């Protein structure tokens, strides 16, 4: 069992940047692959980005490539999502999630994740 707590959401304008943070506790963080998902009003939750246990491998949804960067600090039990050039379409509730994985695994399906945070709201105005 791992507990996840997101922070860093807020209201920004199109073109601005935000950095989301997620603090993990309760299990050895370095054994977990980590991911970010988001859910917009009226839509299903979707994959945004994932990072492997050691941080050496990452994956992104197409709309995030080139704008978002996922990173982690295993010494601090933290995972981050740096979001640049934000667009109104990025408005959603963002969730941090944890998965068991191999050293290079970057899960992209919800079913692969066993622990979820409460989420943080990101709103991008035009």
Defining traits:
single chain, 126 residues, globular
Describe it:
With 126 residues, this protein is mostly beta strands. 0% of the residues lie in helices and 50% in strands. Strands 2, 4, 5, 6, 9, 10 and 11 form a seven-stranded mixed β-sheet that branches. Strands 1-3-8-7 form a four-stranded antiparallel β-sheet, with no helix packed on it. A hairpin with a 4-residue loop joins strand 7 and strand 8 (78-83). It is globular, with a radius of gyration of 13 Å. The termini are far apart.
Overall form? globular
Distance between the termini: 39 Å
- The count of strands amounts to 11
Number of helices: 0
Helix content: under 10%
SSE sequence, one letter per element: EEEEEEEEEEE
Measured by DSSP, the beta-strand proportion falls in over 45%
- Return Rg in Å: 13 Å
Low-confidence stretches: none
Structure classification: mainly beta
List the helices and strands and how they pair.
Blueprint: E1 3-7, E2 10-13, E3 18-25, E4 32-39, E5 46-51, E6 58-60, E7 68-73, E8 78-83, E9 92-100, E10 115-116, E11 120-125
Parallel strand pairs: 2-11
Antiparallel strand pairs: 1-3, 3-8, 4-5, 4-9, 5-6, 7-8, 9-10, 9-11
């Amino acid at each position: 069992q791992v507990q996840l707590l997101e922070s860093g959401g807020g209201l920004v304008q199109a073109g601005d940047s935000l950095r989301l943070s997620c603090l993990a506790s309760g299990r050895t963080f370095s054994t977990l692959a980590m991911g970010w998902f988001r859910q917009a009003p009226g839509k299903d939750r979707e994959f945004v980005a994932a990072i492997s246990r050691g941080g050496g491998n990452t994956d992104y949804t197409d709309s995030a490539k080139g704008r978002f960067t996922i990173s982690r600090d295993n010494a601090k039990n933290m995972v981050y999502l740096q979001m640049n050039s934000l667009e109104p379409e990025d408005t959603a509730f963002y969730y941090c999630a944890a998965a068991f994985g191999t050293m290079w695994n970057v899960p992209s399906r919800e079913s692969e994740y066993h622990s979820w945070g409460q989420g943080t709201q990101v709103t991008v105005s035009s």
